[in-house]
Amino acid sequence: MAVLTMRDALNQALREEMNRDETVFLLGEDIGLYDGSFKVTRGLMKEFGEKRVLDTPIAEEVIIGTAIGAAMSGLRPVAEMMTVNFILVAMDQVVNAAAHIRYMFGGGSKVPLVIRTPGGGGHQLGAQHSHSHENWFAHVPGLKVVAPGTPGDAKGMLKSAIRDDNPVMFIENEGTYAIKGEVPDGEHLVPLDKNDVKRQGDDVTICAHSRMLIVATEAAKELEQQGISAEIVDLRALRPLDMAPVIESVKKTGHAITLEEGWRSYGVGAEVASRIYEEAFDYLDAPVARIGAAEVPTPYNKRLERIAFPGKADVVVTARALLGKN
Amino acid sequence: MKVEQRPATERKQKDALKDRDALLHLYREMLLIRRFEEKTAEMYQMAKIGGFCHLNIGEEAAIVGTISALRPKDYVYSNYREHGHAIAKGVDPKAVMAELFGKETGTSHGRGGSMHLFSQEHRFYGGYAIVGEALPLAVGSGYAINYQERDEVVMSIFGDGATNIGAFHESLNVAKLWHLPVVFVCINNQYGMGTSVGRASSVTEIWRKACAYDMTGERVDGMDVVAVRQVTDELVAQAREQHEPSLLECVTYRYRGHSMSDPDTYRGKDEIKQWQTRDSILSLGEQMKKQKMLTAEDIEKIDQEITAQVEEAVKFADESPEPDPKDLYRDVYAESEAR
User: Fold this and answer.
1) Could B144 and A69 be called an inter-chain contact, meaning their C-beta atoms sit closer than 8 Å?
2) Torsion from C-alpha of A41, A42, A46, A51, nearest 10 degrees
3) The domain spanning residue A41 has which CATH number?
4) ipTM score of the complex?
5) Which value, in Å, is the radius of gyration of the alpha carbons in chain B?
6) Per-residue pLDDT tens for B91-146?
7) Chain A within 8 Å of B328 (Cβ-Cβ)?
8) A165 touches chain B (CB under 8 A)
9) Nearest beta carbon to residue B140 from set A73, A96, A105
10) Considering only alpha carbons, which residue of chain A is nearest residue B119?
11) Which chain B residue's Cα is nearest to A97?
12) Which of A191, B89, B146, B268 is the most exposed place for a label (fewest CB within 10 A)?
């Protein structure tokens, strides 16, 4: 098994699926000649040509719309949006078209489409390049939403997403492209609807996804030194949301923290906490604690930005408070 | 009112359009849409049809003149005023009426309604109720055709109001840039809801918007089905053979309000009457009578047949079952086949 960066794992998944299925093609801004803003598509235009790696103008609505129409007409497009913030320009296409077409046409069509896009902040990119909007998409029936946080999951879930017959929002994170991890060679498929326990523990359950998995892991290590054993459930499958490992974990620990990079209000944590209350209320020893970004448009200033996003200390303090150890 | 056709080059009369059978086909299709829509209005008033309901009455020549130029495997993307578009593409009026009634036998199994007709079999790729939304999708079908080296064509149909929205401009730009076989058809019926073209667009001759993208632009009298068909034949051939897109403006008029719930206070009765003097169906009927292709009795007989066909559609819709409540969640997601 190779150790790859997230970016190379994604690249490998794209290459393998393009080799496997001629109907798979990529489109997006600067994904070809420029090799991709984050180099996920590096080398693919050279390998597969301009037809299968299509550089588009900066026109988000027609990028997503082209992908939808092509998907309805027999192809399997993978559209890249340079950041999730830009996809807001094309929300009509994502929600009113991609998500609804199958149902509103009575099952007469299908939209096998993947939209890859990174969210996340921490790079001093200010209010219009730094947000995480996966909860917006996870709200919508008809979409599948995944947000892997390890290179192995990224490869396996991207391959599964490309083979899926539904529109899949594949949420990446600018802060994870360089992280390394083990990636199985060749045919490695991770299901789109299974969440995963990434670390075993007994005292508190931390639910996190994407870059927050890293924060959760750092926090869990520190908590361990303080005698607190944290279990981490990776919420890589956001819609459909696989609650089984969360509920199982909460039944064991009696304490739950949700950790997300986006704003807390109406967020992933709000949904997960509600589901915990509905399905495991009697097992809880304390209310579910939710950690998210400060409810401000992301500031540019480095220090302000750092405190606006959740960090290791936030998780440690919250876990201790939850367990009555402060 | 005379609509000047662009460009002013002399067009060759196509033999097919002098042919009685070809003209009769156009006539019947237009009359079917007219009678279907009249019946739809009646059914709406009887509360057999719910929601919003937008009629094609007045626009029949633009619809039939364009869509009849296509082959069965060509694609049509439409908007929410699309009952006639679906019928012209070959969808059974029974399935259309059943959809308006919200029945399981409708084109979209009662999940779509008046604004969301669809037929995979007829490559009628849907009615969309967000203005301009389907133009990018038509581009996508065009891309798929080129990608798989097929010889099909995409027709993207929208109203004058859609030409002011970003998606229109993004779509024309890439269709030309990527040499896609897409014919963009603007049914200019003079109003986007209650706002006239002149109050919404800095350029009132919609066809001229094509020049911004170095694309073929044409304007045709949308009340003259033969003229529409002739220019569409040329544009479809250009798309199919040269993979060059185009923008066709059909200048026409809707006799009824924007939707069934429109009190129609923004335009004068005289204006409506004036357009009705140029009615496409009456004109073609008169022309065919003059050319001894039809008699008054023939016209009467055709009308009876079509009226009966529409009655049959209503009967079918009325007698069809409602969707089963247990199927509320069916088709939110596709079951992925093992690939």
Assistant:
1) yes
2) 20
3) 3.40.50.970
4) 0.96
5) 19
6) 999 999 999 999 999 999 999 999 999 999 999 999 999 999 999 999 999 999 99
7) no
8) yes
9) A73
10) A108
11) B133
12) B268
Structural domain containing residue B248? 23-318
Contact of A44 with A15, CB cutoff 8 Å: yes
Query: Exposed (0-12), middle (13-18) or buried (19+): which is B272, by Cβ within 10 Å?
Result: middle
Residues of B in contact with A106 (CB under 8 A): 106-112, 118, 331
Range of the domain at A29: 2-183
Q: What is the DSSP letter of B206?
A: G
d(CA A188, CA A211): 22
Contact list in B for residue A73 (CB cut-off 8 A) is 75, 140-141, 144-145
* Whether B136 contacts chain A with CB within 8 A: yes
Mean pLDDT per 10-residue segment, chain A (326 residues): 97 98 98 96 98 98 98 98 96 98 98 97 93 97 98 98 98 97 97 98 98 98 98 98 98 98 97 98 98 97 97 98 92
> Residue A191: inside a domain, yes or no?
no
Tell whether A176 and A237 lie within a shared domain: no
Q: Residue B339's pLDDT is what?
A: 57
In this structure, are A240 and A125 located in the same domain? no
Number of domains comprising chain B: 1
CA distance B178 to chain A (A): 10
A94 touches chain B (CB under 8 A): no
Q: Do A72 and B143 touch (CB under 8 A)?
A: no
* Strand-pair partners of A173: A119
Query: Angle A12-A95-A81 (CA atoms, 0-180°, nearest 5)?
Result: 35
**Which residues are CB-contacts of B75 (< 8 A; sequence separation ≥ 6)?**
A73, B123, B125, B138, B141, B152, B153, B154, B155
Residues A179 and A209 in one domain: no
